[in-house]
Amino acid sequence: MTVETIKTATKAAIGAIGGVDAAETITRVKRSVLSDYGNRNSPHVVPVDVAIDLDRCAQTPRILQAMAVAEGYTLLPIEVGEGCVAASMSAIAENAGRTISTALMAIADGVITRDEADAMLRELADLLRVVQHAQAAVMGERDRVASLPATLRGVA
Questions:
Q1: Which of 26, 34, 61, 118 sits at a 20 to 30 Å CA gap from 50?
Q2: What is the domain class of 3-70 according to CATH?
Q3: Helix (H) or strand (E) holding 144
Q4: What counts of helices (H) and strands (E) characterise the chain?
Q5: What pLDDT digit, counting tens, does each position of 76-133 carry?
Q6: Residues ≥6 apart with Cβ < 8 Å to 46
């Protein structure tokens, strides 16, 4: 991932919040600086503390995920809590479809550009996050069922 990818993630987070005016109210920086953080023609990149503020308000770690992938890592939630297994499986299918679609579009012309590779890495990182959330949901369901009396688990 490149600085441009981090800028794209920053711009997306700011957009999810409602724009630079709204983002200004939850960060320590002014509107013009926030605009620079998403502008590919500006050398300024969002600092981590501001990225955390923006990601928290946007309710998804877009910027921090882009930063992690730039360093060869992915973000995983510390606690995903218990979730609905069906919803988790649906999210996997949706994300997998989007990941495959992004990859197919990238390889259609026989050449994968850096931007296309970055897009595939973003989709794969998001898919990994969704799969790990689903794993936690399934483990929670398994543990819930295991704690039931044998007669309720179908064991005679």
A1: 118
A2: mainly alpha
A3: helix 114-146
A4: 7, 0
A5: 666 555 567 888 888 899 999 999 999 999 999 999 999 999 899 889 988 988 888 8
A6: 6, 7, 10, 37, 54, 63
